[in-house]
TrEMBL record:
Keywords: Membrane, Signal, Transmembrane, Transmembrane helix. The keyword Nucleus does not apply. The chain crosses the membrane at residues 160-178, 293-318, 343-363, 375-393, 424-442, 449-469, 475-496, 508-530. One of its GO terms (biological process) is transmembrane transport. InterPro entries: TRP_Flc/Pkd2-like. GO terms for cellular component: membrane. It comes from Cephalotrichum gorgonifer. Residues 580-620 are annotated as: Disordered. The keyword Methyltransferase does not apply. Residues 604-618 have a biased composition (Low complexity). Residues 1-17 form the signal peptide. It comes from the Eukaryota. This is TRP C-terminal domain-containing protein.
Length: 627
């Protein structure tokens, strides 16, 4: 009934201020205002006084009445406005300005409007205030409306919230690229897995980037749960929307978008306390409607996949030219299967959480959305699941986690079959828990309690797995992020309906923002600065430490003057060969160009020790190099 009134009012009334979700202060007994005429809309605007720095609240209460009922508006003689916010309460007496204008295109009906202006005082950088407007007639209250209003933050605060995380992300990305290219201290990983990627990308790639991206996505998406947040929390977290593929405009579909901000406040249009959290976030961001939002996300994922495929092919071509110039004929992997695997691995490693969240969110609207749209969302989830299973069958499980786990600390212990199995199980658990988190965030918008319980359970399970599998050191980014996520989810129980007052919610929201800021600074910014400084010191050091891995030895320049030009067959037969080649059905020693036994050195080598004696030929063994 209320929505019908609002729809009719929007058709006949001019736009005055921003729409504010409101309810009656005392329930049914305050449902009548202006001689039993119920209000239909509560709109407000917040403006700053340039000379004093204080804020003014201008609000409008409108309703449609018969022409003969216009005089009833004068029954309201006084207004009492109560303000409640973190930091203090205030009560302001105001005089109403009552007017009645004919409703356009509706003969015999008029629009009754009561407006007033009140001084709020100085507002905090991030603030939400509770306002209750009491309508009095000769000292007797005839009605009361209440609402929560969130003023728009200043441009400087908005810039800090938007550009500081983006700058941190770019900084971590640049340092991660430098560490991947120039840092040779990552722990080795065995190459006993037989697949197209068993010898490629086994060390950590872009270390730290995946953890940062996941945590930013967690901040944004957990601010989109169906909870009763204080008004400023979702706008503060909304500035991280692009990290979760949450486009703020109709990027590809050019459909209608929400206004987001109107007349100095964040405008949220929906049933009070009954709208999904992701819908609230969509309106705050100023994003398109539900269908267009998901379609923009899907198109973005496809374009990222195409871009990654092109990047993989370019890197393969450059690597091939470099090997050709250096005379390296080592095997390399290419083709559609290899490129597809790299693309799927990157997308699943970095964007599994937002893809599944927004896709499962479409099922919450399955009753009103077209069947083909719900089918497309289900199809995308099916593709994601099949891609994960295909990757498990094509590449080593530890290689699957190379983009999001720091191998330099994770794989330093001596490996054995049980530990390798534990590592694989832990990585699979991480992906499965991410999928469960995403499904709870997007698919359980109808039940905020279930969202909190599932998210907290996922963090507890992950923490238990970290301890059980000894996945990370006690002091590491992985442990810090897990504990921070668990604490933030537990704190969010305060935002459940009818749990706490606005002041308590505001205090907890400030605490959450402080927690997230501390994690971004101490778990990502400072460690990245440390790794950058460490890398610079290592690169400008006076002496490079000796390296013995095959990957490092290939990079080492071999002096050509130390090699003899005559045949090496006799030395191979006397000292034993290092390579075997089948010939005519049997095995015969075959010289290898990279075998130390096939080289006559004019001076001692740092990497090869001659045989101690001419003892009988040793048993032929194949060298296993650790990459």
């Amino acid at each position: 009934m209320l929505l019908n009134h609002l729809t009719a009012l929007c058709l006949v009334a001019p736009a005055l201020g921003a729409y504010v979700q409101w309810h009656h202060c005392h329930g049914a007994e305050s449902a009548a205002v202006i001689a039993s005429v119920p209000p239909e809309s509560f709109r407000a605007a917040v403006s700053l006084a340039n000379d004093t720095g204080t804020a003014n609240l201008q609000f409008y209460v409108t309703t449609t009445v018969d022409d003969e009922d216009c005089d009833r508006g004068h029954d309201v003689s006084d207004l009492r406005v109560d303000f409640e916010m973190l930091g203090g309460d205030s009560v302001v007496q105001a005089s109403p300005n009552v007017s009645c204008e004919p409703a356009p295109h509706t003969p015999g009906r008029s629009i009754l409007k009561i407006e007033s202006v009140s001084d709020i005082g100085t507002l905090h950088a991030l603030s939400t205030f509770y306002v209750a407007v009491h309508f009095d007639d000769q000292g007797e209250e005839v009605g009361c409306l209440s609402a929560e209003i969130t003023p728009v933050s200043s441009k400087s605060i908005v810039s800090v919230l938007r550009y500081c995380p983006a700058a941190l992300f770019l900084f971590v990305l640049v340092v991660a690229i430098l560490r991947t290219v120039y840092d040779d201290t990552d722990a080795p990983v065995s190459d006993d897995d037989e697949s197209f990627a068993s010898n490629h990308y086994m060390r950590t790639l872009l270390p730290g980037l995946g953890d940062l991206l996941h945590y930013m996505q967690f901040i944004f998406l957990t601010a989109s749960l169906s909870l009763r947040y204080p008004g400023f929390y979702q706008p503060a977290a909304s500035k991280l929307n692009w990290f979760s593929l949450f486009s703020g405009t109709g990027l590809f579909t050019h459909s209608r978008t929400y206004s987001g901000v109107n007349d100095g406040i964040y405008e949220i249009n929906g049933t009070y306390g009954g709208t999904f959290g992701l819908e609230h976030m969509t309106q705050i961001v100023g994003a398109p409607m539900t269908m267009s939002l998901w379609l923009n996300m899907a198109i973005t994922v496809v374009l990222m996949g195409v871009g990654l495929a092109v990047l993989v092919e370019i890197m393969w071509y450059l690597n091939k030219r470099q090997r050709w110039w250096s005379g390296d004929e080592s095997q390399d992997f290419t083709g559609v299967r290899y490129t597809t695997g790299q693309v799927f691995r990157a997308i699943l490693s970095y964007f599994l959480l937002p893809i599944v969240s927004l896709s499962t969110y479409q099922f919450d609207h399955a009753m009103i959305l077209p069947a083909y749209h719900t089918g497309l969302a289900a199809g995308l989830l099916f593709v994601i699941a099949m891609a994960f299973l295909w990757l498990l069958s094509q590449i080593p499980t530890r290689s699957l986690g190379a983009l999001i786990f720091d191998g330099s600390k994770r794989y330093t212990r001596l490996e054995s079959s049980p530990s390798r199995g534990g590592d694989a199980s832990f990585i699979i658990i991480l992906f499965v828990l991410t999928f469960i988190r995403a499904a709870a965030i997007g698919g359980l918008q109808l039940s905020p309690v279930a969202q909190i319980v599932i998210l907290a359970t996922c963090e507890v399970v992950l923490l238990a797995c970290i301890i059980g599998f000894q996945a990370y050191p006690a002091i590491s980014v992985g442990v810090a992020c897990t504990l921070a996520r668990l604490c933030s989810v537990l704190l969010m129980t305060v935002f459940l309906p009818d749990i706490a007052s606005l002041k308590t919610k505001s205090f907890v929201a400030y605490l959450l923002l402080l927690l997230h800021t501390a994690v971004l600074i101490f778990a990502f910014f400072f460690p990245t600065v440390y790794h950058l400084a460490k890398l610079c010191v290592r690169r400008v050091g006076t002496e490079t430490p000796q390296v013995f891995g095959l990957r490092q030895l290939r990079r080492r320049e071999m002096p050509q003057g130390n090699l003899t030009q005559h045949s090496n067959l006799d030395s191979i037969e006397e000292g034993g060969g290092f390579g075997l080649e089948p010939h005519n059905g049997g095995l015969h020693p075959t010289p290898r160009s990279d075998s130390p036994s096939s080289l006559h050195l004019n001076e001692p080598s740092r990497y090869y020790r001659p045989p101690r004696s001419s003892s009988p030929r040793p048993i032929l063994r194949r060298k296993h190099f650790i990459l």
